[in-house]
Design goal:
alpha/beta; 3 domains; 17 helices; N-utilizing Substance Protein B Homolog, Chain A; Rossmann fold; 12 strands; 8-stranded mixed β-sheet; Alpha-Beta Plaits; 428 residues; 47% helix; 4-stranded antiparallel β-sheet
Length: 428
């Protein structure tokens, strides 16, 4: 456990210093190839957990210390220990003992003894005063909801009746949802196959099946053969909402990693251009297509905001614009987002989104449709963005979604899906 705590401490430290959790974990696996799958799973669980509940853990640590710690690695080790004591099934005494041992590697020999004593005292004090400390930590909104204060304020202002449910959903483990490849198998048949394998699943909508319990991808029957993909139920709405039909010329403007592109090809025989600005991520699109036995007309590396660099001048009948955003709707899958994002980032994302929308609109055929999509819950990137676009484009008209359970296209995260926003625009 000492090695696990030590590496988890290092991961958390790098993320709190500004690095992406996904990138840091990938680098950790490369640097420590001998780690077993069980060890990797434990490190990932701790790292995600500390960041998921960082607001609460940080508040607890402040209550347990006489003064703020100057040493970041020691602070992160204590956060890891507090997370394990509060949320893991590990023996409390083993957590404390291993944290004390791990602390000896944080300083030089002269200070190791004092550091070990501090770690021991802080963690054991938490165990003795747990109930009172948790109550004190929850007195602040950041400690109670484990979100930055600006994020809480904005959600409360924009969703006064739903914001607490959204905050709670962000701190839950995300569901595992599958998209059945309807070209290869009927949804009901695959659901039966899952049940026969001891993996009960519930049908949500369209081709989406949510598993009662997440499993390793390689355990999914027929995954390698392309029968099924892993994709959030909210993300699975994009392709059906775009209303594609056989023979259409279609653009997925920000395609990587390819889940929505693949879904479009599963729904209809379309001439698809999959565009993305990142060549490495575009290769993942190609890998997904290969596994699913699908084929796009073109895979293009290019900037959606600069059509002159990649567009051949032939208008598209349908465009999916799943634009870069704050990713505030998928915070439970990427808990580092809560602590890496700044409120000022929203204006920058909105400016980029506006450029992409304006550019793509030029490539859409008359009577064509463009689906604007984000995985954000903030109005600046969603309703307000669309309203601004409509003011400057009199030939754009929003179309209603029949049967979509959302508020003006806004899906808020809940137990069944992440947060997404969709608006379908018709070019007249």
């Amino acid at each position: 456990m000492i090695k696990i705590q030590h590496l988890a401490t290092a991961v958390v430290g790098e993320v709190l210093a500004g690095a992406s959790l996904t990138a840091v974990l990938q680098e950790t696996w490369r640097a420590h190839p001998a780690l077993s799958s069980q060890q990797r799973g434990a490190i990932q669980d701790i790292s995600y957990g500390v960041l998921r509940f960082y607001g609460q853990l940080d508040a607890l640590l402040a209550l347990l210390l006489n003064k703020p710690l100057q040493q970041q690695s020691l602070r992160c080790l204590l956060l890891v220990g507090l997370y394990q004591l509060q949320y893991s099934r590990a023996s409390p005494h083993a957590v404390v003992d291993h944290a004390v041992s791990a602390s000896s590697g944080l300083n030089d020999g002269k200070r190791a003894k004092g550091t070990s004593g501090l770690v021991n005292a802080v963690l054991r004090n938490f165990m003795r005063q747990r109930t009172a400390l948790l109550a004190q930590a929850s007195e602040s909104e950041v400690g109670r909801h484990s979100h930055p204060q600006w994020w809480i304020n904005k959600l409360r202002a924009q969703y006064p009746h739903n914001y607490q449910a959204v905050l709670a959903a962000d701190n839950q483990h995300p569901p595992m949802t599958l998209r059945v490849n309807r070209r290869r198998m009927k949804v009901a048949d695959y659901q039966k196959r899952l049940n026969d394998c001891g993996m009960p699943a519930q049908l949500l909508w369209n081709d989406a099946l949510i598993l009662a319990q997440p499993v390793a991808v390689e355990k999914l029957p027929g995954f390698s053969a392309g029968l099924v993909s892993v994709q959030d139920a909210g993300a699975q709405l994009a392709a059906p909402l775009l209303d594609v039909h056989d023979g259409m010329h279609v653009l997925d403007a920000c395609a990587a990693p390819g889940g929505k592109s693949a879904h479009l090809l599963e729904l209809a025989e379309v001439e698809l251009t999959a565009l993305d600005h990142d060549a490495a991520r575009l290769s993942r699109v190609a890998q997904n297509f290969t596994r699913l036995e699908l084929k796009a007309h073109r895979l293009v590396c290019g900037d959606a905001a600069q059509p002159a660099e990649w567009w051949d001048g032939r208008p598209f009948d349908r465009i999916l614009a799943d634009v870069p955003c704050s990713a505030s709707g998928v915070a439970r899958r990427h808990p580092d987002i809560k602590w890496l994002r700044r409120e000022s980032d929203l204006a920058q994302f909105a400016a980029s989104q506006q450029k992409i929308l304006d550019a793509l609109w030029q490539t859409l055929a008359r009577d064509g449709k463009l689906l604007y999509a984000t995985c954000s819950v903030f109005a600046e990137e969603n309703k307000l963005q669309v309203a601004e676009f409509l003011r400057h484009h009199p030939d754009a008209h929003p179309l209603p979604f029949s049967g979509m359970e959302a508020i003006d296209g806004q899906l808020l995260p809940d137990s069944q899906h992440d947060g997404f926003f969709y608006t379908l625009l018709h070019k007249t």
